[in-house]
Sequence to fold (322 residues):
Amino acid sequence: MPGGLRALWLPAALAAFAMPGGPAGALELNLPGEAELTREEVRPADTYFLPVGPFADGILPVREVEGRVTRQAWRIVDGEMTTLQLIAPLRDQLAVAGYDILYECVDEECGGFDFRFGTEILPAPDMFVDLFDFRFLSAQKPNGDGAEFVTCIVSVAGGAGYVQLVAVGSDMAPAAVAATAALPLAGTGLAGPEEGVVQRLVTQGHVVLRDLDFASGAAALGEGPYASLAALAGYLKADGTRRIALVGHTDAVGGFEPNMVLSRERAGAVLERLTETYGVARAQMEAKGASYLAPVAPNTTAEGREANRRVEAVLLQGGENE
Fold:
């Protein structure tokens, strides 16, 4: 099977390529949570540019591979899952199946916007990638004189997980679905959604508080409880020198000024809840609004608008040991 490493030159926001493959044994992967197959495409023979490094200086390093290509998009209904909890079991299954990881990355270290738009992604609403919350891996398995390849990109948005699998050079059976327990992660002594919130805040500098519930067009925060706020409160109260900004964001429906007011009021509602219910000192927090100026998805779809309506925590000052 031919293939060679090459650097694909791209402008800063170029979209997708075509995807492909050549047959062998069937690859079977189990997905975590309750998943549904939203799209599947099979091409008997084609060329696929498989990412093997981060987008940097206008270049996306890719490996050109040929053969049979199976592409699948999955939607997982589990708003508490993190991207690590989505991709970790798939990575482990690939290792058991004899695959070696060629490249693995997390959103910004992949190249953020440019990596996502320089990589083949199945169209929305079947597949969705939050530019600030995705993980990617590419893997290779020797097979006689050639090799089989798999790429996986996962993201979380709007209370759902999204998984795209691409197999090149092998048949990929429709992925089985298996319930997978929340994976404990290193870093804060927490697990599940709480760990995801604090870990992302510390390592990435910001985190979307995905479990918050606001009525449409309103600033009042639902009754809760909210795992993300409990996690934030625990982190802040453990060290009084830690400070965050709570930033509200809206979709692009309506004018700039009304959305600025709404985004600021929602951030303020979160600050008040952290203070009154969880006992966080006001001096450790500030509330800001960004209106519709910082979208994470296109405002042209209902799903994109839902992802853009959010409150984020931004780390302003870490603790003494961070």
